[in-house]
Each structure stands twice: as structure tokens, then as C-alpha cells.
Amino acid sequence: MPTKKVVRHAGEPHPPAPPWDGPSADAQVRCWRFALPRHEIGYVRFVLEAYEGLAQMDSAAGQGEIRWTVPRSQCAPARALARALATELPLIALGDDHALGDDHALGDDPPLP
Q1: What digits encode the pLDDT tens for the residues 1-51?
Q2: Residue 50 phi/psi, 5° resolution?
Q3: Is the separation of the CB atoms in 44 and 36 below 8 Å?
């Protein structure tokens, strides 16, 4: 079956991405949201990227909120990193977008020390 080829012209905008509702309840990832000062987002991204495969980080432009998408197999080390970062800067856990099982976003209430 032939595939349909999409041709875009220079300067033509990309179509908008569909809204992301996060992973389904049976997904193998967790989504954690944090608030922090905007000027610290680059530092947190730099530190997180040093731990390859630990999590992916998204941030909205102009907002002091980030989201980590964490594979379930990496929840424990990601929690430890989030707690360590919270001792260095005002990183506030906002919650877990899709809690799976009995495990809280960072395991404690409150989530971060």
C-alpha cells in the first residue's frame, strides 16, 4: 500500500501537537511535577541530564514548573536525586500526575524534606 507523503513549504508552521494527557494508569512511567524559581530550571535540567536514562524533564516557557517523566524502574534513584536537589534549591513537589499503585510521588508526605 503506498504511503501518503506530506509536503510542507518553507515557512509553513507545524500543525499543533495533540494535547498530552500523560501516561495511562497502566503505563511504565511516572510523571512528577515540581515548582522552582525559573532561573534554576537550567541547573536542574543539567543535573538530571547527567544521569542518563534517569528521567526526562519538560518545562513550559516562562513558568517555574517542571515535569519529570520517570521510568518506574528508576523511581528510587530519581526520588533520591529530587531530595538532594531540594537541599540545594527551593524545589517543591507539586504531585504525581498519574499515581500507580500505593507508591506516592516521592514516597513521603510531604514528598520532599
Answers
A1: 555 555 556 666 656 655 555 555 556 888 899 999 999 999 999 999 999
A2: -65, -25
A3: yes
What's the predicted TM-score (pTM) here? 0.64
Q: Which fold, 29-96?
A: Alpha-Beta Plaits (3.30.70)
Range with lowest mean pLDDT among 24-33, 82-91, 97-106: 97-106
Helix (H) or strand (E) holding 58: strand 56-59
AA letter at 98: H
Q: List for the chain the helix, strand, coil content (%; round to 5).
A: 25, 20, 55
102-113: burial string, b at 16+ Cβ within 10 Å, e else: eeebbeeeebbe
